[in-house]
C-alpha cells in the first residue's frame, strides 16, 4: 500500500512522532493506522522506561485554584534540564495535571504508595461483598481483583483516566511527554486542599 503524506501527517498528529518514524511505522504495518499508533506508543513506553533512572531535579511548582477558590492544588513536576522546564508544553502539562488533581482528588501518586493496611481493609470488604452476593470463593477472588483495579484508578493519580480525555491515563500522558522531550519527566509530589475538609491527625 502506498503511504501518502496525509497518512503520515495524521499519524504524527495522533502520536507526536517524527516524519520518518511515522512513515516507517505505516510502511511496516501496510498502512494500518491503529497498528502504527500502537507500535509508536510501545516505542515511546520503552524509551520512557530507559530514561526512568535519570535524575530529574529541574522543573516547576504548579499552583492551581479551582474557580471559586474552594479547591487548590500544589504540584511539583520535574524534568532533567531547566531548558525543558521552561518549555511551554511542559508548563501546560503541569497545569493540566494540577487541574486533573483538583477534579479527580487522588490520594496517592502510585499503586505502591497505598498503605498495606488500607489495601488489606479494601480487599476484605470487597471479598465480603462478593461472598454476600452468593458468589463462589473462586469467583469472589476474581471479582476482588477487578474491583481492586478500579480502587487503584480512583485513589492513585498515575492510574487515573485524564479528566479531559478518559481514554488516556495520567501515566500515559507522562510517557508521551518523556517521548517528546527525550528527558525523564516525573511527578515528584502533590497536595490537594479542599475548603472545609476534615483535618486528619
Structural commentary:
The protein is an alpha+beta fold. The chain folds into 3 domains: 5-51, Helicase, Ruva Protein, domain 3, CATH 1.10.8; 58-106 and 163-194, Tetrahydropterin Synthase, Chain A (2-Layer Sandwich); 115-154, GTP Cyclohydrolase I, Chain A, domain 1. 54% of the residues lie in helices and 16% in strands. It has 8 helices and 5 strands, in the order αααββααααββαβ. The chain has helices spanning 5-15, 19-28, 33-51, 82-85, 88-104, 116-132, 137-155, 170-181; strands at 58-65, 71-79, 161-162, 165-169, 186-194. A 3-stranded antiparallel β-sheet has the order 1-2-5. A two-stranded antiparallel ribbon has the order 3-4. Helix 3 packs across helix 8. The longest helix has 19 residues, at 33-51.
What's the CATH architecture name of the largest domain? 2-Layer Sandwich
Number of strands: 5
Mean pLDDT: 84
**Mass-distribution shape:** flat
CATH topology of the largest domain: Tetrahydropterin Synthase, Chain A
- Which sequence of SSEs, written as H and E, runs from N to C? HHHEEHHHHEEHE
Low-pLDDT segments, ≥5 res? none
Gyration radius, rounded: 20 Å
Number of distinct helices: 8
Largest sheet: 3 strands, antiparallel
Helix content: 40-55%
- Work out the count of structural domains: 3
Looking at CATH, the homologous superfamily of the largest domain is: Elongation factor Ts, dimerisation domain
- How would you classify the helix and strand content by structural class? alpha+beta
Strand content: 15-25%
Distance between the termini: 64 Å
The side-by-side strand order for the widest beta sheet comes to 1-2-5
Indicate the CATH class of the largest domain: Alpha Beta
Amino acid at each position: 500500500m502506498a503511504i501518502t503524506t496525509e497518512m503520515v501527517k495524521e499519524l504524527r498528529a495522533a502520536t507526536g512522532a517524527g516524519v520518518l518514524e511515522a512513515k516507517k511505522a505505516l510502511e511496516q504495518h501496510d498502512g494500518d493506522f491503529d497498528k502504527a499508533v500502537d507500535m509508536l506508543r510501545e516505542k515511546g513506553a520503552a524509551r520512557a522506561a530507559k530514561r526512568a533512572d535519570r535524575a530529574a531535579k529541574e522543573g516547576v511548582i504548579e499552583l492551581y485554584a479551582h474557580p471559586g477558590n474552594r479547591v487548590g492544588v500544589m504540584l511539583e513536576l520535574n524534568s532533567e534540564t531547566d531548558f525543558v522546564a521552561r518549555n511551554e508544553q511542559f508548563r501546560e502539562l503541569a497545569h493540566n495535571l494540577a487541574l486533573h488533581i483538583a477534579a479527580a482528588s487522588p490520594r496517592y501518586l502510585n499503586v505502591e504508595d497505598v498503605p498495606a493496611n488500607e489495601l488489606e481493609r479494601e480487599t476484605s470488604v470487597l471479598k465480603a461483598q462478593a461472598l454476600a452476593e452468593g458468589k463462589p470463593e473462586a469467583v469472589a477472588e476474581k471479582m476482588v481483583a477487578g474491583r481492586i483495579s478500579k480502587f487503584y484508578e480512583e485513589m492513585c493519580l498515575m492510574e487515573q483516566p485524564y479528566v479531559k480525555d478518559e481514554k488516556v491515563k495520567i501515566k500515559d500522558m507522562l510517557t508521551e511527554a518523556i517521548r517528546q522531550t527525550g528527558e525523564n519527566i516525573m511527578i515528584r509530589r502533590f497536595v490537594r486542599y479542599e475548603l472545609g475538609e476534615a483535618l486528619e491527625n
